[in-house]
C-alpha cells in the first residue's frame, strides 16, 4: 500500500465524478450500509468500478453478468452509469444477498439488477443452459470477482455465453505481485490467478491481457479479455 496511490485517487475522483452526480447517494449508501451490516471492505474502488462501467457504456452493453455481488457496490456502478444495462449478479452468501438487494432497492435499480443467490459455478451453468436454449440473451460484459479458486471455471462458463466482442474481466489476479512470488505458489488464490491467466492465454475463444493497477485498494490487477 502506498499513500500516494490513495492521494491520487482522492484528488482525481471528485473531479471526474463530482459528488453532485445522481448516483452519489446510492453508492455512499451501499458502502455505509454494507459496513454497518458487517460485510468485508473488499468492494472495487470507485475509480476501478467507474472504469468498468464506462467500458460497458463504450461497448453499448445491454446485458452484463457479475460473479461476486457482496453489497452490490460494483453492481450499482455498472447499472447507474448505464441506463440501457440489465445486470445479473451472483452471490453465494445469503447475508450479502440481503444487504445487496436492499442497497439496490435504495438505488432505485431493482428493475435492472437481478441478484441470484447461489454458488457461482452452479448458477452460471444454469444461465449457460438458458443462453444456449435461447431463453436468455448473451452477455456483452462479465465481471468475475468471487472465490478466486473458481476463476477459470467462471471464465470458461462465461466465454460460452458471451456475445462476440464481449469483455470478460477477472479481478484481483496480481495480488500485490504475489502472482509471481515463488513462496506464494501454494496459496489457493494465487493458484486460481495463475490458472486463469495461463488458460485464458491459450484459449481460442478470447484474446487477453493482464493490466496491473494501483490505487486506494492497493496494488493488484485485472485479467481483461475480449471474446472472439
Ligand atoms: N464485486 C463486488 C464489488 O466490487 O462491490 C465485490 C465482491 S467480493 C470481492 C467477493 C464476493 O464473492 C463475496 O461477497 C463472496 O461472498 C462471494 N463469493 C464467494 N464465493 C462465492 C461463490 N462460490 N459463488 C458466488 N459468490 C461467491
Automatic annotation (TrEMBL):
<dbReference type="InterPro" id="IPR050362">
    <property type="entry name" value="Cation-dep_OMT"/>
</dbReference>
<keyword id="KW-0949">S-adenosyl-L-methionine</keyword>
<dbReference type="Pfam" id="PF01596">
    <property type="entry name" value="Methyltransf_3"/>
</dbReference>
<protein>
    <submittedName>
        <fullName>S-adenosyl-L-methionine-dependent methyltransferase</fullName>
    </submittedName>
</protein>
<dbReference type="GO" id="GO:0008757">
    <property type="term" value="F:S-adenosylmethionine-dependent methyltransferase activity"/>
</dbReference>
<dbReference type="InterPro" id="IPR029063">
    <property type="entry name" value="SAM-dependent_MTases_sf"/>
</dbReference>
<dbReference type="GO" id="GO:0008171">
    <property type="term" value="F:O-methyltransferase activity"/>
</dbReference>
<dbReference type="InterPro" id="IPR002935">
    <property type="entry name" value="SAM_O-MeTrfase"/>
</dbReference>
<keyword id="KW-0808">Transferase</keyword>
<keyword id="KW-0489">Methyltransferase</keyword>
<comment type="similarity">
    <text>Belongs to the class I-like SAM-binding methyltransferase superfamily. Cation-dependent O-methyltransferase family.</text>
</comment>
<dbReference type="GO" id="GO:0032259">
    <property type="term" value="P:methylation"/>
</dbReference>
Amino acid at each position: 500500500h502506498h499513500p500516494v496511490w490513495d492521494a491520487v485517487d482522492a484528488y482525481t475522483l471528485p473531479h471526474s465524478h463530482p459528488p453532485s452526480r445522481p448516483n452519489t447517494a446510492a453508492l455512499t449508501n451501499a458502502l455505509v450500509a454494507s459496513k454497518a451490516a458487517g460485510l468485508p471492505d473488499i468492494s472495487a474502488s470507485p475509480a476501478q468500478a467507474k472504469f468498468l462501467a464506462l467500458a460497458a457504456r463504450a461497448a453499448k452493453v445491454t446485458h452484463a453478468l457479475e460473479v461476486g455481488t457482496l453489497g452490490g457496490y460494483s453492481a450499482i456502478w455498472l447499472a447507474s452509469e448505464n441506463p440501457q444495462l440489465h445486470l445479473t449478479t451472483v452471490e453465494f452468501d445469503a447475508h450479502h444477498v440481503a444487504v445487496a438487494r436492499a442497497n439496490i432497492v435504495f438505488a432505485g435499480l431493482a428493475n435492472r439488477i437481478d441478484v441470484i443467490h447461489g454458488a457461482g459455478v452452479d448458477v452460471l451453468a444454469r444461465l449457460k443452459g438458458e443462453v444456449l436454449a435461447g431463453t436468455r440473451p448473451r452477455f456483452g460484459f462479465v465481471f468475475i470477482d468471487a472465490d478466486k479458486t473458481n476463476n477459470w471455471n467462471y471464465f470458461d462458463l462465461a466465454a460460452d455465453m458471451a456475445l462476440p466482442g464481449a469483455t470478460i474481466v477477472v479481478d484481483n489476479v496480481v495480488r500485490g505481485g504475489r502472482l509471481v512470488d515463488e513462496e506464494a505458489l501454494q496459496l489457493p488464490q494465487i493458484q486460481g490467478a495463475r490458472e486463469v491467466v495461463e488458460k485464458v492465454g491459450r484459449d481460442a475463444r478470447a484474446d487477453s491481457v493482464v493490466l496491473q493497477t494501483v490505487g486506494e485498494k492497493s496494488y493488484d490487477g485485472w485479467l481483461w479479455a475480449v471474446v472472439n
